[in-house]
Task: inverse folding
């Protein structure tokens, strides 16, 4: 289509020409012009190929060779402060050993930790032997090697522990959501890996494998997904959030235990934050305090998640961890015509707390596109006063939807018009983001679309910390 190729060519030119050409394209092409009191709706237009899953024989799904070789290796933080790691993997032929051998780069002395394995059935699928082993008492800021598959075919990986928790510790988080296992998913992961900003830990906002899109929720697609992401998740922690595609509730085939495959395969350190379920928990990492919530578990008054969050928020010490980050799957502020208002009931419950405790940023997924909000809140409404419009609020978080990992369901392209005032930037392209904490006052945030080179920032902003430097950072205020 000429419109597509024109727009594509435009993006290859310098930003000066881009702006001029963008103006022309806007004037010529859009007859319902999108000017509003809102932010920017990108005019970037990508090729609209269909999103398709990578076939089973793809390189990314290859099973490691050798009898009972460990596969699907992944790690996550294993305690509250970053001195432990949970190592998880699957063996297919027999249980084999749940031992992890590990040693730091400096001391060649090998240590040993014992884990456990579990299995589960889902309809007519039987899982492999899923091992989880926590290795603790690690030194901060240290490279460790580790080996799994003791007794059969051993495989070796490595990771670097985070620095000790403290207010000025720089740290770089990657943001990925709704990844799936399509060719676009592979492009997203490659862009994350090749990004010169070098993310050290992935904050994953839910919807992992999309196995539930297959007949009978073909759980073999949970296995392929874990083999696909091993090339990153075995070497740096991925911090997990549950999405709707983790529920796997299928009464029509007798599967009525929500989150069964997800909770067997992905362990998180929820007990370390006094949570009673793996679906909501918190960790500290470097200068960040990260709270993970579950959009698909009860969150109303008196529920376990509600009680936990109410007790959790006052525990956050911004003098120790200046950056307060919340992860959830279903966004509260979204202006796409997909999943519109699905996050509303949770917003009503928790938004006053987020404003009171000055959350810096909320990352969500679910909508398969990208969007960044202004700092807004909508907490004045009390049923009878009619005050139900989002207002600019410097105590409120920025809300970012990063559900654009590239799964089989394709992009969310239809947006509500005009762009609402709370929406600062939105674009329907696949990509990932980087939240790069510099010190207690500044973090640089950037969003990277898959169609650009690895270093290109398609959207970016400086975050000013809400506790240490609560100054308006939106471009319109400067
Ligand atoms: C996935 O991406 C990797 C790294 O870019 C590449 O080596 C591999 O061939 C890709 N696989 C598929 C199926 O696209
Ligand atoms: C599970 O059942 C479906 C439908 O009957 C069938 O197509 C599939 O091959 C079965 N898979 C296994 C592993 O038995
Ligand atoms: C914090 O980082 C920002 C951005 O790099 C820098 O401009 C600022 O001077 C730093 N603050 C301190 C106290 O070093
Ligand atoms: Fe989702």
Result:
């Amino acid at each position: 289509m000429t419109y597509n190729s024109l727009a594509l060519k435009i993006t290859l030119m310098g930003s000066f020409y881009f702006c001029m050409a963008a103006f022309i394209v806007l004037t010529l092409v859009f007859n319902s012009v999108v000017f509003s009191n809102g932010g920017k709706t990108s005019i970037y237009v990508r090729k609209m190929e269909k999103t398709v899953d990578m076939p089973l024989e793809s390189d990314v799904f290859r099973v490691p060779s050798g009898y009972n070789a460990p596969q699907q290796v992944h790690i996550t933080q294993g305690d509250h402060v970053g001195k432990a790691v949970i190592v998880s993997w699957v063996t297919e032929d027999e249980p084999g050993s749940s031992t992890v051998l590990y040693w730091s780069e400096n001391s060649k002395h090998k240590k040993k930790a014992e884990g456990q394995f579990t299995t589960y059935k889902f309809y007519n699928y039987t899982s492999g032997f899923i091992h989880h082993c926590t290795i603790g008492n690690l030194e901060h800021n240290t490279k460790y090697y580790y080996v799994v598959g003791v007794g059969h075919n051993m495989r070796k990986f490595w990771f670097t522990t985070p620095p000790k928790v403290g207010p000025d510790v720089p740290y770089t988080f990657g943001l990925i959501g709704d990844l799936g296992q399509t060719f676009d998913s592979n492009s997203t992961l490659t862009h994350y890996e090749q990004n010169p900003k070098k993310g050290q830990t992935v904050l994953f906002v839910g919807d992992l494998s999309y196995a539930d899109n297959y007949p009978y929720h073909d759980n073999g697609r949970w296995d392929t997904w874990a083999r696909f992401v091993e090339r990153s998740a075995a070497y740096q922690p991925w911090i997990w959030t549950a999405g709707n595609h983790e529920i796997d509730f299928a009464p029509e085939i007798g599967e009525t235990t929500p989150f069964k495959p997800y909770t067997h395969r992905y362990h998180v350190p929820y007990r370390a934050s006094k949570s009673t379920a793996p679906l909501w928990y918190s960790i500290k990492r470097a200068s960040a305090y990260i709270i993970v919530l579950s959009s698909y578990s009860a969150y109303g008054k008196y529920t376990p998640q509600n009680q936990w969050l109410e007790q959790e928020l006052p525990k956050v010490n911004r003098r120790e961890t200046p950056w307060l980050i919340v992860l959830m799957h279903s966004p509260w502020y979204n202006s796409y015509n997909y999943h519109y208002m699905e996050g509303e009931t949770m917003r009503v419950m928790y938004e006053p707390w987020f404003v009171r405790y000055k959350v810096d940023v909320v990352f969500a997924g679910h909508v398969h596109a990208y969007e960044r909000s202004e700092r807004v809140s909508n907490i004045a409404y009390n049923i009878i006063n009619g005050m139900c419009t989002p207002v600019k609020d410097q105590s409120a978080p920025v809300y970012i939807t990063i559900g654009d990992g590239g799964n089989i369901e394709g992009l969310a392209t239809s947006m509500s018009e005009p762009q609402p005032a709370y929406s600062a930037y939105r674009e329907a392209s696949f990509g990932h983001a980087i939240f790069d904490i510099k010190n207690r006052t500044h973090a640089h945030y950037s969003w990277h679309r898959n169609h650009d080179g690895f270093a290109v920032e398609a959207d970016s902003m400086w975050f000013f910390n809400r506790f240490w430097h609560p100054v308006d950072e939106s471009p319109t205020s400067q």
Notes: Confidence is low (pLDDT under 50) at residues 1-36. The longest helix spans residues 15-29. The CA atoms of residues 472 and 478 lie 8 Å apart.
